[in-house]
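Continuing the series of single-chain predictions for the mutant panel. This is the parent chain; the variants come on the following pages.
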Amino acid sequence: MNTANKTASVLLEIKAVKLSVNKPFTWASGWKSPIYCDNRKILSYPEARKSVCKSFAARIKELYPETEVIAGVATGAIALGIMVAEELNLPFVYVRTAAKDHGLGNLIEGELPERAKVTVIEDLISTGLSSIAAVEALRKAAAEVLGLLAVFSYEFDTARRNFEAAKCDFHTLSNYSTLLKEAVKSNYIEEKDLELLKTWREAPDKYTGTV
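Parent structure:
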């Protein structure tokens, strides 16, 4: 089983994936979605944590072997990033969604050497905008961002375009299309819902929640 299938299976096993066709979820962006992937649940399951952490570490060694610092995106990827940094015996920092309004006013927490080669860890990618904001914060701090790795991507075209515009390389352990295949294979979702889920991904901003 390859990494994408293995990671999708892990997410399904711990029930991190929720399906609600008749009562869709509402995202912070206002988009309606019949499916929700809660990767924070990974932290509650030791075997899932180990699997995801080792997959991240293997991909970093393959894609970005010159990595000097691991950076997690707050808040969902802080714990994941720490575990990956520990696995690779590397320093760790994390990027806040906004600078603190008190104390030192930090946007990046931890010790980030100037011109450090950084790999960014994220829990999931939807539009990619929050991930890219973290990348830009690291670049402004004089870090060299080698790329970003996430557990999962919804595979939206807008995310691909946003990363291309930001000139940031990115990869994921698994993705939406693989997740759907594994979900059908394991009877996690029914075949009758498959077409709706595929259609939603093609135009999530136009989905109203009607079946």
